Amino acid sequence: MQSTSLRVDGMHCGGCVAGLTRALQALPGVAAVQVSLAEARADVTHDPARCDLGKLLDAVAAAGYDGKPWN
Ligand SMILES: [Cu+2]
């Protein structure tokens, strides 16, 4: 498992947090998701062989938010 942190802009409320959490958790290979509205951050634990950074960012974009690697 690998831990990846994303900067996610465009979240405004708890509904956004819940929606983004669901979208990321739905990806094959994702084991755990922690989304922080205050930090505009998503921490994802995932199997890098099944779910890479590109797939995480695609899911963020598909959910309607603007994501990029945290660092
Ligand atoms: Cu919202």
Describe the protein's architecture and organization.
The protein is of the alpha+beta class and 71 residues long. Helices cover 31% and strands 35% of the residues. A hairpin with a 4-residue loop joins strand 2 and strand 3. The radius of gyration is 11 Å and the shape is globular.
Entry keywords:
71 residues, Alpha-Beta Plaits, single chain, four-stranded antiparallel beta sheet, alpha+beta
* Shape verdict: globular
Q: State the distance separating the first and last CA atoms.
A: 19 Å
Spans where pLDDT lies below 50 across 5 or more residues: none
The CATH class assignment is Alpha Beta
**Which cofactor or ligand species appear?**
copper (II) ion
Rg over CA atoms, rounded to whole Å, is 11 Å
Number of helices: 2
Provide the CATH topology: Alpha-Beta Plaits
Order of strands, widest sheet = 2-3-1-4
Q: What is the percent of helical residues?
A: 25-40%
